[in-house]
Every structure is written in structure tokens, then in C-alpha cells.
Amino acid sequence: MPRFLTPEWVDAFNDALSGVALPAEAAEGSLAAASGRFSVTQVVHDVPPDGTSVRTTLAMADGRLELRVDEHADDGVADAERAQVTVSLGYPDAAALSRGELSPAEVLATGRVRVRGDLAVLVASQALMAEAGQALGELRAVTTY
């Protein structure tokens, strides 16, 4: 049972999505997303057990989503590329989002998340994640938080 946001969990996330082709129309509405290549970085603060920050980047390319853990989560620079949007939030909210107990709209409306960059890319990524939701259901069921 992988623990949320660990490298093992990221590997399981990618395995769950390995055969899922996502529709291009889910990324419409943003010039950056419409190209079919974009990325969203999420920085989660106060991750148990040691309270560190974890930076992950969700990249869309060629109809596929891939998640990676970026090194140097606290230095403010994504490793491989600059994401079009960066989301920063605390672990309790990230875990609640992952479990489906909290919607992205709720966390935005309450101001518990900071967003920097192209909001249309964030919306497109959420639409793609909704499309991929069924493939991630099994991972959700076995993830520990």
C-alpha cells in the first residue's frame, strides 16, 4: 500500500494511467493546454512524517499524463521545466483532494491554496484528471495517508 506522495505512490499513479488515452478536447480553453503539452506543479507543505515539502509535476504530452516527483521542493524551481501553473497547498488539503473529499473549487474558494500561472491550464488539468479518475480509483483505494 503506497503512501501518498512518496516515489512509490507516484510510480503507482503512473502505472494506473499507463494505458489511458485522454481526449484532447479536455484541454481546450487554454492556448498552452491546447497544444497538448503542458505541466502543472503542485507543492505540498508539511508532508508527514517529517513535515517537509514535496513537489510533483503533472505533465501532459501526446495524450498521456505523467506525474513525477521533482527534486529540491523548497527552492522554488521545478527541475525539468517550468510549469505553466504552480499550486501550493498544505498536506491535509492535498490528501482530501486525492481522496475526493474536497473539490478543487472548494479549496480555491476558501483561499487554502495559492495558484501562480495560467489558470486555464489548471482547469484543463483538472478536466483531464476527471477523465482519468476511473483508472485511479484502485490506487485511491489502496493509498495510505
How would you summarize the topology of this molecule?
Layout: H1 7-17, H2 31-34, E1 38-47, E2 52-61, E3 64-70, E4 85-90, H3 91-99, H4 104-109, E5 113-117, H5 119-142
Parallel strand pairs: 1-4
Antiparallel strand pairs: 1-2, 2-3, 4-5
Please supply descriptive tags for the structure shown above.
single chain, 145 residues, alpha+beta, five-stranded mixed β-sheet, 5 helices, 26% strand
Please provide a written account of the structure.
The protein is α+β, with helices and mostly antiparallel strands. The protein has 5 helices and 5 strands; from the N terminus they run H-H-E-E-E-E-H-H-E-H. Strands 3-2-1-4-5 form a 5-stranded mixed β-sheet. The longest helix has 24 residues, at 119-142. Helix 1 crosses helix 5. The chain is globular and about 35 Å long. It has one domain: SCP2 sterol-binding domain (Nonspecific Lipid-transfer Protein, Chain A, 2-Layer Sandwich), CATH 3.30.1050. Helix content is 37%, strand content 26%.
DSSP helix fraction: 25-40%
Show unreliable segments: 75-80
Report the CATH superfamily. SCP2 sterol-binding domain
> What is the CATH-assigned architecture?
2-Layer Sandwich
Integer average pLDDT: 83
Class per helix and strand makeup = alpha+beta
State which percent range the strand residues make up.
25-35%
Strands side by side in the biggest sheet: 3-2-1-4-5
Q: Number of DSSP strands?
A: 5
Q: Write down the Rg.
A: 14 Å
**Remind me, CATH topology?**
Nonspecific Lipid-transfer Protein, Chain A
**Main sheet?**
5 strands, mixed
Q: What is the total domain count?
A: 1
Give the number of helices.
5
Q: Label the overall shape.
A: globular
The helix/strand series, from N terminus to C terminus, equals HHEEEEHHEH
Distance between the termini: 10 Å
CATH class: Alpha Beta
